Amino acid sequence: AVPQQPAGGFGPPGSGDEPGYGGMPPEGGYGTYSDDDFVKPRGGRKWAKRSFYVVLALAVVGGGLYGGYRWTQTQYYVGSNKQHVALYRGISQDLAWVSLSKVHKDHPEIELKYLPDYQRKQVEGTITEGNLSEAGKKIDALAVQASACKKDEQRRAAERAADVADSEEQVGGTKPTDKPSPGPTDTTKPDKATPHPGPSLSEEEQKVASNCGKQ
Fold it and tell me: Most CB atoms closer than 10 Å: which of 32, 39, 68, 145?
């Protein structure tokens, strides 16, 4: 006799003994899928939190850079601008391609050539003074020094011109072999043109005039 298959079974005899429909494992068994397996993991919160931290870090860095730049604009230093002295606002260093300083006040009347060598080198290398008041005092001191050295140079030039004039007068005077003309002899000497002694120095300039020519 042919064995009968159990109700609801398919396939050859004996196949109906396997659990599940059509040989599929029962619900909850190994290899089955639940509804949670078809749900996409929620990563939105992680991404939002990560973005927040990135924005926060950029804000901190940007705020620090801005605060640092604002601080540099409270600093002042003395430097050179072409062939004269200038007062700068900021710091002499640059940040990449960004300049952190600009000319606050130009002083073309303080020429570098009239400063002693050691002061000229200091100015060319920049002199940091911090605040505006201290930088202004340094500018005033350099102005007095440059003016004193300029006047000293003019005085020396006037003295050299006077020496040349005296030499020319002696060369062009009466020679010993010349015969005096008849008549009363005039014993008075002609007035000698007194050369201008050069500009006078102020009291402050006299104090620093000895620095002129120092290396």
Answer: 145
